[in-house]
Automatic annotation (TrEMBL):
This is CsbD-like domain-containing protein. Pfam families: CsbD. Belongs to the UPF0337 (CsbD) family. SUPFAM superfamilies: Hypothetical protein YjbJ (SSF69047). Residues 3-55 form the CsbD-like domain. It comes from Caulobacter mirabilis.
Length: 72
């Protein structure tokens, strides 16, 4: 699943910013679709533990896996 997110990162940055509005454009550039980088930036910006950040990303992945999510 994450391969699809990484491969479509530029198209998905809007959805990522909707989910995690504290992430900056610079953060998104640094993350560049890398799951571990996203976890780290969510932890940094929101003060979340790694487990909470990973849980949020799993929920994001689940929503992105719904039919047509990549077409919107």
């Amino acid at each position: 699943m994450w391969d699809r997110v990484e491969g479509n990162w530029k198209q998905l940055t809007g959805k990522v910013k909707e989910q995690w509005g504290k992430l900056t454009d610079d953060d998104l550039t640094v993350i560049a679709g890398k799951r571990d980088q996203l976890i780290g930036k969510i932890q940094e910006r929101y003060g979340y533990a790694k487990d909470k950040a990973e849980h949020e990303i799993r929920e994001f992945e689940r929503r992105m896996d719904e039919p047509r999510s990549f077409d919107r």
